[in-house]
Structure formats: C-alpha cells, structure tokens
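User: Hey, my collaborator sent me this sequence without any context and asked if I could get a structure. I don't really work with proteins. Can you help?
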Amino acid sequence: MVGMVPLVDEPPWTRRTPDGKWEKLGEGYEWEGCESGSLLKLTKLEAQCWLAIYHLTCNKLCREKYALNAFRKEQLLRLRKFLNDVVLDQLPVLADVMRYMDELAIMSVPENSSGHGGALLMQQVATIRERETKGKNWGEVAKMQCESIWSLVSDGTDMDLRKISEIYNEDGIEDILGEAAPVPLTSFPIYRVAVEVYEDESDESLLHLCDYEIGKSDKGTSTDTPDGIYTRYKLKKVSSNSVSGLVEVQGEGEGEEEEEEEEAIPYDARIKLIVTFSVGGGEAPHVVVLSMADIDLPTQTVEGENSESTTPQKLTKRVRVSEELPKKVWKQFGSAVQEKLVVQLQFLKKSDSRGGRGGNLFCYGFGNGFISQPTVVAEE
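Assistant: No problem. I've predicted the 3D structure and written it out in structure-token form, which is a compact way to encode the shape of the chain:
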C-alpha cells in the first residue's frame, strides 16, 4: 500500500518539458500535451492507481491483513491533499478513501508493527555484502589490518588522522570563548632534573641516582611544533651515585682496593625521571614524574659468570664490552601532547663492566641529554 504513495505524489506519467509545457502519458503510451488547467483531469493510468488505492484501503480483507504503524500512517496521509472535488467528481468511489484518511488521521497506531499472522513480509537482502562476508575469519582479518595497516599509520605521519584528532583537541577553545589560555606549569623555569634507577617495581630496589642541570649560558633552541612552540635545552650530568644494591662476588684479588667509578645500569631497569619546576610567587614547586618500566638497553652474554643470578651483582672480574654494541643509545620520556614535557636521555657504552645478572652484562652508563618545555609567547 505504501508503494502506491509515490505514484500519486510524484507521478511518472506526468512531466514538464524544458520549454515549460506539461505532458501526460496517454492510453497509447505516448506523451501528449496537456494544458496546466487540465492537470487534474485523470488519465486511464492515474485512475487505475487511485482504484488500486481504493481497494487496498477500503476492502475489509486488505485491512485485516495490512497492519498499520506510525510510518505507514504518515505515508498514507500524504494522499489526503490530492483528494479534492475535481478528483471526486471523476471517481466518486474515492469518497470512501477520503473518509478512511480522515479516520486514520485521528487513529492511534503502534510505533512498530510487522503485520498479522500469515501476512507476507518482504525484507531487503544485501546479496553482494553477504557474498563478500560469508566464511570470513574476522579475527584473522583484524590481525592482518593491525599488522599491515594501522601499526604503520599514526597522527604523526598521516595528516588526515591529525586533522581528525585536532577536532577533539581542546587547545585553542579559549580563543573561541574569548578567554586567556592557562599557562602550563611545565613552562616555568626548571629547578632540578633527577633520574632514579630501580631494579624492579618496588621503590625499595633503588640502585642509582643521577642529577642533571641546564647550563647558565644555555638560552635554548625554540621550535614551532604542531603542539605549540617548544624550547630545547641541553642537560649536563653533574653527579651520579650508586646505592649499595650490588652484591659483590668474592674472587681472586680479594681485599685489593679498586678505584671507584660509575657502575653500569641494568639493561632492564625501571627508570623514574623527576623534573622540578620553580613556580615562584611563594607557591610550592611543581613536580613532574616520567617513568619507563623497562629501559631496554643493549646487552651481551657472559659465559660462566653468575649465569644463574637473578639480582644485580659484581662479577669476579671486569668484562670487555663488545664493539658491536652501539656507542650511544637515546631514550625519550614524556610527550608534548600529554605531559607537555619531553626529555631525551643519552646512555653511553662503557669500555668494560663488572655489573651483570643472569649471564648478561650491564653495558651502559649515564650520558648527557636534552629537555624540551613549552614556551609561553606574550600577547601583543
């Protein structure tokens, strides 16, 4: 029944030519000219359409089989505006259809209804989609997409993804609201940078402490990034101390004095980087803690030297560090998006080492680094 509505609302057998003249499809299925004043005169095709609507709406059997809902009611009431005196004079039986429409307008119908009992229900089936999706292992498809597509794309390399992410970025909303943007606490002067090295997740497993400072003459280098202007300073190592956490293994030369030097860092140590900012104004300093659960430094195996140990130990003698290992390793802490602070630490390969665990040698010690903080630009 609903399918008859478009045939009346936008009849395919009536058209308007480019020069503004009206035409209707006649009994010989040929287009015939029609004056604008005669558009309401029904042709044989139009009369057949109205008669079909009459039988569908006024026949008792059709009413029992055709269940009405809110959508069908709305569509059928679109026909009411076409039932005027001119049309009724040509097809008097449509008076019953008009009466049905008036009753339908005040009738309450359910929001959703699919029909009664054995009524025929037709449903659209997407055959192409079913053919393409049938028998697919969606777990394997998702794994393939993660490995070959999504793992290779990020908002740092894909401009479209960056534009999408910026939609939900609240940076700059103050400009729209006419408010001043808050000054990030990480833009204040840096008072202290300290690094703590832990053996495991416990805070009681502290092994090393290292302090850095920014040179007094270092003015920094400013860079315009997608997250604002950042100034980069060089970090210089000023002190490095080892906590008594290494177990010394007795061996030959026991009791001999050995010159103290900075011990190597465990290759899988947990690193906690603490940056303190001087806020001023009598307020407490602002502290940012950046962590890395596993520093993941290169290592080499040591044959026969405490291979079963699970804790850091001093080996019985120094072991030469392999030339194949990289001389420098850089690790980054923080980000410009979340912490508003980026720290890059350098780890230098040692010529030899006496620290190890589980048959693996600790090969790297602290080097210098860089720290980048946001720069607040004064408004003109």
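In plain terms: Confidence is low (pLDDT under 50) at residues 245-260. You can pass these tokens on to your collaborator as they are.
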